[in-house]
Amino acid sequence: MNSSIQDILSRANQEETLQRPDVIQLLDISDPNELQALFKTAYKIKKQNVGKVVYFRGLIEISNLCQKDCLYCGIRKSNHDVNRFRLSVQEIVDAAVWAHKNQYGSLVLQGGEIQGDEHADYITRVLERIHQATRNELAITLSLGEQSREVLGRWRLAGAHRYLLRLETSREDLYRQFHPDDHLWQNRLDCLADLRAENYQVGTGVMIGLPGQSTSDLADDLLYIRDLDVDMIGMGPFIPHSDTPMAHHLPNFNKNKQLDLGLKMLACARLLLPNANMAATTALQALSDTGRELGLQAGGNIVMPNVTDPKHRRAYQLYDGKPSLDENSEQSRIGLQRRIESIGETVGYGLWGNSPRFDQRGV
Ligand code: SAM
Question: Considering the domain boundaries, does residue 110 fall inside one?
Fold first, then answer.
């Protein structure tokens, strides 16, 4: 093994702060032995800091209505080949009750970005009804895009605890390339600051392997996220969607390479923020049947099993090859538990699974 990789990993093991060149070198690893050494180190640091318990976040895809037009996203407003839907409050509550009965400690409500009072009221009702139906026993994460501070405050009061808003990239010029002119990178940053001010547990992340993105950009992304001092990280590989303008932007798209890059990012994130929660995302699973387990072995400690009624899942495809389209919630719970146990970990049933980073913050 290259002596400098060994040196970086042993410095990480001794809790030394890694520098930009170190992270770039780790992201550039191509030697299989070095890759395994990186994952092994990240796994050791994960075990020491967040343990070998995997927390389930029951994912409810509440709506694919979206006012945004991100050039990579399958539910972008200009994609007219999508059957648009919004779940009723009762459908969401039913999914939440199922998750609660099955001992999921928490939920993620994700959907396209919609601004305005009607939507804000709908989410407020959803939050209140879920808490009534589940005795306030579930932690709730929202992932509903940029919202005003006032709306974020209302949702926090109605019982949302956490919020995931990806920065997508820390390079503003790259953000501009993949978004229309009126989508501002700075707004996302401001929204992340508002989330912290409103006392949310804050999660962010980036898309990995975008066209024109280098490993030094990705290292900058990780350092940027470290400096934002977030509680959770949810990042995953970019995967093209055939009905978007970016369908053919990566002519040499290679699933294995994209997967490896995603896993390297997760491992480096674990070295940089040892006590944060990190998702082994569905996008990893879209690239390989065992993608989520590999993600857990590279430093992730969270998975988001889909608990949305399968009849709506086809209409919520952010990228091609979304996995588990026809699997019902019970099948995916059993399958995932088996996979998690097969790598020597356990499911944290009935637990909220806050990150130690958040708990130590003492808010
Ligand atoms: N609308 C909300 C927002 O913007 O945060 C939440 C839903 S949005 C669809 C969730 C995330 O999906 C985005 O932050 C983006 O990173 C990811 N995503 C969208 N299209 C993708 C693609 N083609 N490949 C990988 N991830 C994608």
Answer: yes
In the predicted structure, residue 239 carries a pLDDT above the cut 80: yes
Residue 154 belongs to a domain? yes
Half-sphere exposure of 362 (CA within 13 A, CB side): 0
| Distance separating alpha carbons of residues 167 and 202, to the nearest angstrom | 12
Write the DSSP assignment of 68-100 as a string of letters. Answer: ---TT-TT-TT-TTS---B--HHHHHHHHHHHH
Residue at 331: amino acid letter: Q
Per the CB < 8 A criterion, the answer to whether 63 and 123 are in contact is no
Query: Residue 77: which CATH number?
Result: 3.20.20.70
Q: Which residues contact 130 (CB under 8 A, 6 or more apart)?
A: 92, 93, 96, 107, 138, 140, 159
Number of domains the chain is built from: 1
Is position 363 within any domain?
no
pLDDT digit string, tens, across residues 188-197? 999 999 999 9
**Domain range enclosing 93:** 20-354
Distance 346 CA to ligand 1 centre (A): 28
113 lines ligand 1 (CB under 6 A): yes
Q: Fill in the DSSP letter of residue 248.
A: T
Q: Residue 127: exposed, middle, or buried by beta-carbon count in 10 A (0-12, 13-18, 19+)?
A: buried
Let me know if residue 362 belongs to a domain.
Answer: no
Lookup: tokens for 222? 């990780």
Spatial CA neighbour of 151 closest among 110, 101, 113: 113
**CB of residue 262 inside a 6 A radius of ligand 1:** no
**Residue 327 identity:** E
Q: Which of 110, 166, 244 to mutate to test the pocket of ligand 1 (most atoms within 8 A of CB)?
A: 166
Write the pLDDT tens digit of every residue in 293-350: 999 999 999 999 999 999 999 999 999 999 989 899 999 899 999 999 999 999 999 9
